[in-house]
Write a structure and sequence with these properties.
mainly alpha; about 190 residues; Tetracycline Repressor, domain 2; elongated; single chain
Length: about 190
């Protein structure tokens, strides 16, 4: 159900999504969906949490790899960035960000989800510094800066700016790699 909700939100946006249209896609009733989620905002949040839980598992596997910290950082960047314009998981984030100013519950959820990325990136960078693979640095600050940059790049990719397609995603990854080298230089 949440996979289909994520696809529907990515296709037309949350504002255009109706519970009855989603119910038709799922072969159920709008009342059934409302019973479980209560509102479109809560449906959005459930779909985002579901998507992020899968990514958290991928991050844990990435952090457990025997590869060096620079390689794991590159894999982290690839995992974080969208696959291309209208990436469904990133469309959920953009929809969430648009609703945060008026919704404390969504704001708290956003902070919680962001903390997972921050914590895992800090662990990766700390391991790299400890093993002499990265130069000593203020790990929390560098992780926060890198995540902010990745959010900006991701937004540009999802919105298709300045050009569309895979070129934007490849350009964002190249930019992220350059920024990572500047923010967290190798030892």
């Amino acid at each position: 159900m949440l996979d289909e909700a994520m696809s529907a939100i990515a296709e037309d946006g949350l504002a255009a999504l109706t519970m009855s249209a989603l119910a038709d896609r799922l072969g159920t009733s709008g009342g059934h969906i409302l019973y479980y989620f209560g509102s479109k905002d809560l449906l959005l949040l459930a779909a985002l949490r579901w998507s992020e839980a899968a990514l958290a598992e991928e991050r844990r596997a990435l952090l457990a790899r025997r590869a060096g910290a620079p390689r794991r950082l590159d894999l982290f960047l690839q995992l974080y960035l969208p696959r291309g314009p209208r990436d469904p998981r990133w469309t959920l984030w953009i929809e969430l960000w648009a609703r945060i100013p008026a919704n404390d519950e969504l704001r708290a959820a956003q902070r919680e989800l962001d903390q997972g990325w921050q914590r895992d990136l800090e662990a990766l960078l700390t391991a790299g510094v400890d093993r002499g693979q990265f130069a000593p640095t203020d790990v929390p600050a560098r992780a926060s800066e890198l995540l902010a940059l990745l959010d900006g790049l991701s937004t540009r990719v999802v919105l298709g700016a300045p050009a569309g397609g895979d070129e934007v995603a490849r350009g964002a990854l190249a930019t992220a790699r350059t920024a990572a080298e500047l923010l967290v230089p190798r030892a």
